[in-house]
Amino acid sequence: MPYQPRPGAAFDQIDTPALLLDLDAFEHNLRHMATFFADKPTSLRPHAKTHKCPEIARRQIQAGAIGITCAKLGEAEVMADAGVQDLLIANEVVRRLASLAERAKMMVAVDNPANVAALSEACQAKQATLRVLVEIDVGMGRCGVQRSEDALHLAQQVIDAPALVFKGLMGYEGHLVMLPDAKERSSRVQQAMIPLLEAAELLDKHGIAAEIVSGGGTGTYDMTGTSAPMTEIQAGSYILMDTTYLRIRPEFHPALSLLTMVVSRPMPERVVTDAGMKVITKEFGWPEPIEPEGLVVQGLSEEHGKLLAEHPDQIDLSIGDRVRMIPSHCCTTMNLHDRLYVTRDGKLVDIWPIAARGRAQ
Q1: Domain spans, the chain
Q2: 106 close to 138: Cβ distance less than 8 angstroms
Q3: How many helices (H) and strands (E) does the chain have?
Q4: Which among 333, 192, 310 has a CA at the least distance from the CA of 258?
Q5: Cα separation of 189 and 192, whole Å?
Q6: Staple 219 to which of 58, 106, 177, 194, CB 3.0 to 4.6 Å?
Q7: 11-19+251-353, which class in CATH?
Q8: Alpha-carbon distance 210 to 109, whole Å?
């Protein structure tokens, strides 16, 4: 167990590598998204796969979110254990879900008749009730039925299935959320919503109401969040942000950073830190050093980060000094850590457990 500094401690008292959460930026992001949805016909159900932290989920709900979205059952179990009750698993699952439905208000996505039958059987055995959304593939090429007729048939099966309650539809435009051009992103999102709209209309013709239509992400929250047929948005990364999303969503502030320590400076232009791929991910690109300025990441090995000092004579760094950087992908980086060191004005305020990290089952 690493040394745990007390509130008020400065950065140089925190063992590295360590994930930092800037409370001012975090609270700005929390307020901005809550204010956006305050007068919209849609509601916010933020995705916990980004932060995996019950304390953040509680604050999102206190700020007006209607519930929390999870990617995996294990995440939902952690959130339920922490008192978060209104949960959507935006995925197709069966095992253990019926047990969780006994103690939390659960909702899950389906796209297959066998999945519906298994859920119904499991919930009947537990005398539990489960809310269900039929997922439609809106272009991501992952899960979801392909046609409105398939959605209708599956919805009818859910309605007829004991212990299940049909609530609506789900479709995630994840293939569009990071398109750099806002106009192209908006246009393609509107096209992607057509299958959801058509399915909702077909269900209505057969007397079936799609009370909930769920989807959306940080890159598209103001597009899907302001037009039919969406009723709730699953945006996740907005609360932390990373270098990838900051390029297209400057209205949010970078709340998450990684604190690292210089372990070697073998030559003036090379700075080596204690942060490699085991503590910060690189699938969307290298992390971006922000403090001190003038450093560029050249590579990451398992336990080391190799940084270039662009102007070596202007970088006063010695062994033991700290370097802070923003990850290129906040979601996968969070999953590598057990705790968040919450800071304000460069001082430690609190430590929040990332209790759902590694809960991939």
Answers
A1: 11-19+251-353, 23-240
A2: no
A3: 11, 17
A4: 333
A5: 5
A6: 177
A7: mainly beta
A8: 13
Q: Write out 68-125 in H/E/C secondary structure.
A: EEECCHHHHHHHHHCCCCEEEECCCCCCCHHHHHCCCEEEEEECCHHHHHHHHHHHHH
Cα pseudo-dihedral 154, 160, 166, 172, rounded to 10 = -10
Residue 97's φ and ψ, nearest 5 degrees, are -65, -35
Both tokens of residue 268?
């003036």
Residue in the structure block whose two tokens are 């953040």: 56
> How many whole angstroms separate alpha carbon 361 and alpha carbon 339?
20
Instruction: For the chain, 361 residues long, give each residue's pLDDT as a single digit of tens.
Output: 667 888 999 999 999 999 999 999 999 999 999 999 999 999 999 999 999 999 999 999 999 999 999 999 999 999 999 999 999 999 998 879 999 999 999 999 999 999 999 999 999 999 999 999 999 999 999 999 999 999 999 999 999 999 999 999 999 999 999 999 999 999 999 999 999 999 999 999 999 999 999 999 999 999 999 988 999 999 999 999 999 999 999 999 999 999 999 999 999 999 999 999 999 999 999 999 999 999 999 999 999 999 999 999 999 999 999 999 999 999 999 999 999 999 999 999 999 999 999 999 9
> To 5 degrees, how large is the angle CA 151–CA 212–CA 101?
90
Q: What are phi and psi of 344, to 5 degrees?
A: -150, 130
State the fold for domain 23-240.
TIM Barrel (3.20.20)
Structure tokens at 136: 């439609």
Cα–Cα distances in angstroms (integers) from residue 324 to residues 13, 164, 354, in the given order: 14, 48, 20
Task: Say whether 23-240 and 11-19+251-353 share the same fold.
Answer: no
- 311/153 Cα distance (integer angstroms): 64
